[in-house]
Amino acid sequence: TTLVQTINVVDTTAPTFDVVLPEDVTVECDVIPTVETITATDNCGNATITVVENTMTGSCENEYTLVRIWTAADACGNSIEHTQTITVIDTTAPTFNEALPADIDVECNAIPTAETLTASDNCGDATVDFEEEVTNGACVGDQIIERTWKAVDSCNNEIEHTQIITVRDTTAPTLVTPFDEDITAACDDIPAVPDLVFQDECSNNINVDFNEVSTQQNDFEDYEIIRTWTVTDDCGNEAEFVQTVSVELSNIINAFDSSRCVLDIEFDLFDLLSGDFDMNGTWSVVSGNATINGSLFDPSTVDVGVYTFMYSITEGPCPKEVEVNVTIDDDCVVLPCGEEDVVISKTVTANGDAYNEFFTISGVEDCGFVIELQIFNRWGAEIYKNNNYQNDWNGDAHGSSVGSSGKVPTGTYYYIINLRNSGLKPFAGPIYVATNK
User: How far apart are CA 148 and CA 166, in angstroms?
Assistant: First the structure.
């Protein structure tokens, strides 16, 4: 007999995975695990592995879900699969790339410009936003500046940096206008107060306090004008600028000399001045026992002598004093002197014995005459002349005389004497001169 056995071979068993299967995980966006290599075995042959990865978007660019499916299939279509779910999250903030600006204290004219900061993110791009907030202080130059840089990624993770700038104004205003601190000027050429311009680094609100002081103690001495500008800004910073004008009262005193006789009538002292003078000044007596009526002076009320008067002008920038010296004489007074009063010496013996040393004309000392004397030699040559003779000729020679020893030769000479203001005729006669020559 023949036995026939029919064996129906079927394959209904799926392959099995050989490795530990990857589990579901939650990871940061910058540490997503790579796809693992999984192997499988089949009870009847080989198994083929296929992998499919699907992405499901999340709430932001860097947050999403990865679904990885590994399928192991044998030749008969038996299969097995494993699914891994990877939840990708982004919780890491960006970081700044540059060194961050530190808190600082600065002057109001030295506020730095804002830094430009950039940032990097672990999973993508980051944007940097900048904000600045200014809080004013008690004055224009004082303030607090708060600068904030905020870096944000696509999932709104953010980081920020704040810089506090404390702004202070400790600098006083400065002078813009060219400025002479020291000036020397004549009293009639004092410069006007200059129009100074000041500036401040932080504020246009500048207060200028000007003060001018003169050191003048009287009308006739040099003095100083001290001009002070005190300049203050809005924060109370103060600077002082000083100009000193040295005023010179040069050429303020003039002197005039004149003479009058005791018989002259009252006259105006202004008549003795030359040039233009302000008539509003004051006359005063400086020396001599005299009185004046305003500018009027009467010589007949005083004795013979010298009288000094001062005319003072104190109005205006340049005071002036004028000194007038008036000599009062009695030349105009003719005393009752006659020819018989005149005594003329006959001999001159200039030998040092104190007798007849000089040619003298006496007897007229109190007559008010002026003696005019001429002496001639025997040839008619004038050897001496004096229009105001004072009894002081002792035989001295001049260029036209004979001899070279400084004295005229011994001999007889001739004189002519005129007594001016006497009304007398001139006197003439011989004079014997002995000079040991």
Answer: 15
Co-location of 232 and 178 in the same domain: yes
* Residue 208 within any structural domain of the chain: yes
Contact 152, 121 (CB under 8 A): no
Does one domain contain both 356 and 297? no
Output the pLDDT for position 250. 63
Q: In whole angstroms, what is the distance from residue 72 CA to residue 13 CA?
A: 12
Looking at the fold, whether 323 and 257 belong to one and the same domain comes out as yes
- The β-bridge relationship of strands 143-153 and 119-120 is unpaired
Contacts of 50 (CB under 8 A, 6+ apart): 70, 71, 73
Q: Give the closest residue to 15 by CA, choosing from 78, 68, 69.
A: 78
Give the integer Cα–Cα distance in Å for 244 and 228: 9
Q: pLDDT, tens digit, for every residue of 21-43?
A: 999 999 999 999 999 999 999 99
Secondary structure class of 10 (helix, strand, coil): coil
Q: Which is nearest to 200 in space by CA: 231, 237, 173?
A: 173
- Considering the entire predicted model, what is its pTM? 0.55
Could you tell me which residue, 366 or 63, shows the higher pLDDT? 63
